[in-house]
Every structure is written in C-alpha cells, then in structure tokens.
Specification:
Layout lengths: L6 E11 L5 E11 L3 E5 L6 H9 L6 E6 L2 E2 L10 E4 L11 H11 L4 H14 L15 H13 L5 E5 L7 H18 L2 E6 L2 H7 L2 E6 L2 E6 L1 H6 L4 H6 L4 E9 L2 E4 L2 E4 L9 E6 L4 E5 L5 E10 L4 E6 L4 E6 L8 E6 L5 E4 L6 E10 L3 E6 L3 E5 L9 E2 L6 E2 L12 E5 L6 E3 L7 E10 L4 E6 L5 E6 L8 E5 L6 E4 L1
The protein binds adenosine-5'-diphosphate (ADP) and magnesium ion.
Length: 486
C-alpha cells in the first residue's frame, strides 16, 4: 500500500523562516496520499496554518522541497496549483449572491454561462443547498455560509482541498453536523482533504490520518486509533484525550511498577527501564476497597451526561476515571488495570540526563552543581526551584510561601537536547570531554555518542564530521540545560 504512486503531496526537509528571522519550522517531512483525509492537529501557534499556506502557495518555503505528484511546485503561484482553500474566515463576497460567489472562479477561468450554471447547481446539491442561487450571503446562517465557502472551493474541481479551522466559527451542534457532512463530502468527491484543527476530538472523528504537531515539529503521524492508543511520546499522550500518566519502571518481562504496585502490561522493555505509563480514564476499573492493586479514596465524582468522572486519590497520585457508576466522596475504593490498558512510553535514559548535587549557592549568581564528570556554575536558583526568592545576604533561598528552602545536598537532574550541544577539539572548551565512541550520518547532521573517562555517555547532534576515537569536548549553553529536582 505504501506505494509512491499513491503519494500526492510531499514536503521534504521543509524549513520556514519568516522575514523577522524567526524559524517556525526547522525540518518538516510529510507525505500525503491521494484521496486521504489528513488532519494537522496541534496547539495554537505550532505552525499548522503556515504549513497549509505553503501548500496552497500563499507562503514560500525557505528551504527543502514541496512536491505535487512528484513535481516541485514551490514556485507555482496559488492559482496554478490544483489546490483550493477554505479559510478560517469564510471570505465570501458579501455584496454578491450565492451563485456569483460560487461562480466567481469559473468566470475568471472563462467558463461559459451554461457550464457555470451546471457546475454551480451540482456543487449546491453537494453541500445540500439546492435552489439557494439567488440568496444573498447576509441572509445565510453561519453553517450555510460555511457550506457556500466549501462549494466555492470545490467548484473548480481541485485535487486538494485545504481547510483551515473551517468549523471553529460554528456552534457546537452545527459543528458536529458539519463534521459528518464534510466526511461525506470527502467520500463523494474522492479528493484529498487537508484539514487543520486544534481540536483533538474533531481530528479523531474526521480523519484517515492525523499529524500531531507541536512547535513546528511533527510528534506523531498515524490513524486516529494509533495516536489515541499508542501515543509515541508524552506530548501526544497528554494532548490527545484525557490520560493518567504515571512515572515508574520495568520490573520484569512485561511487568511494570508504578503507583506502588506491579502490573502486567503488553509492552516489553528491559528491567529497570524508567518509563511513563499512560492510562486512559475509561480503562481504570473500580473495585471494592481492599480488592484491586491500588487503594484510594474518592475525592470527586461528577456526572458528565453519559458517564461519571471520578477522581481517586491514592498514596502517590490522583487518578481520573470515567465510568457509568457514581461514587460518594470519601468512599474507599480499589482500582485495577488490565494489561492492555497500560501503554508504556520508555523514558530514554540514554539521552543526556545526569544526576548531580547542589553544592553551594551564591546570592545574585546561583548554584554550583556538581556531577560525576563535570560541574555547572552560576545556575540561577529559579531554574531549579520555581517561584523562589533570594534572601538579601548569605546563602538562603525562600519558597513562594516565604519558607526557607533546604537545598544543601539536594539531587538534581540536568539534561540537554543532542541538537543543543556542539563538539570542539579543544578539550577545555566545553563542560565535559570524552572520546567519540560511534556516530551515525543522519542526512543533514551526524549523531555522535561521546564517552567520558568515567564511561558516561553523551549524545550530540553536530553538523561537522568527526571520527571515532577523536578526543572532543562538549559545549551546551547554560540556558539550554533543563533542571529537575530528583
Ligand atoms: P497555528 O496555525 O498552528 O496556530 P501559525 O502557523 O499560524 O500557527 O503560526 C506559527 C507561528 O508562526 C506563530 O508563532 C506565529 O506567530 C508565527 N507567524 C505566523 N505568520 C507569521 C508571519 N507572517 N511573520 C512572522 N511570524 C509569523
Ligand atoms: Mg492557524
């Protein structure tokens, strides 16, 4: 099925830098097949509209390739691409009637009156507004205007229809109806729809394929079922649907431990792998107190129309559960999880996490943090303790409530992303030195594993070529380090 012949649109290593010099998209790779209903899903500002505008031709790509049927279209103006857009604001001409709004593009292309009449009639049927030709735009409801906007976009028989948050302006009920209609329209037309939304439910209901994005990067591509049931990382797990996320570790073959209990699961990772376990609220089983592997107390239970949302507090966590029974606040219950209701996301411990100790603190400068291989100095206190304030003198730090924080000897984990690190052949230039143990060429950079004298491993993505055995040092700007108390 994964035949290149089915591929309609391809974005290869696409980069987008706006005039102000800000890079919105670094390196985007996406393939869209003929006839697919693809949804770009992600929080506001993650770059969805920008991608759509690049495909539509309203925005130039800064680097990379944009292919349609294998041909580069990045220099074609919008009207020469077989692509039409339904914008977030419908952009209908208010002074023209329905007919003239829809026929506008046909007229520009020089279609004769008879062709115009036929095509307008056909698309009005398609959007269920037969006989609306003479109506003025201002007399139409929001839902009807939306349909006219779609009719206008499909009358030119494009190969691709781009829809940018096209349903966001509608009220909830209308929106649900239009979701179903759009899907039906997609089936009838047989063309490719690229739909943009920040609404996960909308994306899951409508699409063949969902592209989950954050910060200009694709987090996961998959069917709605895939991304719901098998989120690849915590961003996706958190963004799609409700989830309980537990930190834990593998303790045996398909055995995982979290929230103080051991569970069978269906994923297998080496013993001691640190993991996040994702459990959907509808998959938690509530049992009698004393039964089930986790014990807790009901702290909230609200009816949501079809199911109850129950919150249970356990020793270590607060768990959200969706089910059909109501519970009393204060009621003691047991909880259990079936193996296939636990989805494991291994925490990649090999990627640049290092535990250190808070060694000393200087007011106005920050912490000295000591690690096995290196030390970091002048780490601002606020990077480690959120909302803390410094005392005027001495080495005291106060928390948000004004209480003194006892930081001496506390352990912190410092981490950095491989792409934020650089290699140098000057052993003194970086914060740590080691030998290049292995490297992999990744198309536009190299992925290095550097091993220090104490056998710690550091992962660095660098654009320059080094050789195995080279002695190098690693630099990471202090602001690129993340700190977390452990
Ligand atoms: P989304 O549609 O996912 O909400 P956008 O693609 O509209 O996101 O925007 C992504 C980012 O690009 C935002 O940070 C936005 O401010 C920025 N951006 C969008 N258009 C421009 C522009 N013309 N110039 C500079 N920055 C822009
Ligand atoms: Mg947008």
């Amino acid at each position: 099925m994964d035949n290149k012949k089915d591929t309609l649109i391809e974005l290869k290593h696409v980069k987008k830098v706006f005039k102000d010099g800000v890079t919105i998209i670094e390196d985007l790779n996406l393939e869209i097949k003929k006839g697919e209903f693809v949804t770009l899903l992600g929080p506001s500002g993650c770059g969805k509209t920008t991608i759509l505008r690049m495909i539509g031709g309203f925005e130039k790509i800064s680097a990379g390739e944009l292919l349609l049927n294998g041909k580069d279209i990045s220099n074609l103006p919008p009207n020469e691409r077989p692509i039409n857009t339904v914008f977030q604001k419908y952009a209908l001409f208010p002074h023209l009637n329905v007919y003239d709004n829809i026929a506008f593009g046909l007229k520009i292309k020089g279609a004769d009156k008879k062709t115009q009449d036929e095509k307008v009639k056909k698309v009005l049927e398609m959007v269920d507004l037969e006989g609306f030709e003479k109506r003025s735009i201002s007399t139409l409801s929001g839902g009807q205007q939306q349909r006219i906007a779609i009719a206008r976009a499909i009358v030119n028989e494009p190969e691709v229809l781009l829809l940018d948050e096209s349903l966001s302006a509608l009220d909830a009920k209308m929106r649900k109806e239009m979701q179903i209609e759009l899907k039906e329209m997609h089936k009838k037309l047989g063309i490719t729809f690229i739909f943009v939304t920040h609404d996960q439910e909308e994306a899951l209901t409508m699409s063949d394929k969902v592209v989950v994005m954050s910060d200009g990067e694709i987090q996961q591509i998959g069917t709605p079922e895939d991304i719901y049931n098998e989120p690849k990382n915590l961003f996706v797990a958190d963004f799609i649907g409700e989830s309980n996320i537990f930190k834990g570790k593998m303790v045996g073959k398909k055995k995982v431990q979290f929230d103080g209990a051991v569970f069978e699961c269906v994923d297998d990772y080496p013993v001691d792998t640190v993991i996040d376990a994702v459990v959907r609220p509808e998959d938690v089983e509530i049992t009698e107190a004393g039964k089930g592997r986790i014990q807790g107390e009901v702290i909230a239970c609200d009816f949501k129309g079809i199911f109850y949302v129950t919150a249970v507090k356990t020793d270590r966590a607060e768990i959200e559960i969706h089910n059909l029974k109501s519970f009393k606040i204060g009621e003691k219950v047991g909880l259990d999880l079936a193996p296939d209701s636990i989805h494991i996301i291994p925490y990649d411990t090999t990627i640049n996490h290092y535990e250190g100790t808070l060694e000393s603190y200087i007011v106005g400068k920050g912490f000295l943090v000591k690690f096995e291989d290196f030390e970091l100095s002048d780490v601002p206190a606020a990077r480690i303790f959120a909302n803390c304030t410094e005392k005027e003198e001495g080495t005291s730090l106060l928390d948000a409530a004004g209480k003194e924080i006892s930081w001496e000897g506390r352990k912190v984990v410092a981490s950095f992303k491989p792409e934020d690190a650089k290699l140098s052949d000057d052993a003194e230039a970086g914060f740590v030195a080691g030998d290049i143990n292995s490297f992999i060429f990744m198309d536009n950079y190299y992925h290095y594993r550097v091993r220090s004298e104490s056998e710690e491993e550091y992962i660095v993505n660098d654009e320059y070529l080094w050789n195995s055995g080279d002695h190098v040092s690693i630099s990471v700007p202090l602001e690129k380090f993340q700190f977390e108390l452990s």
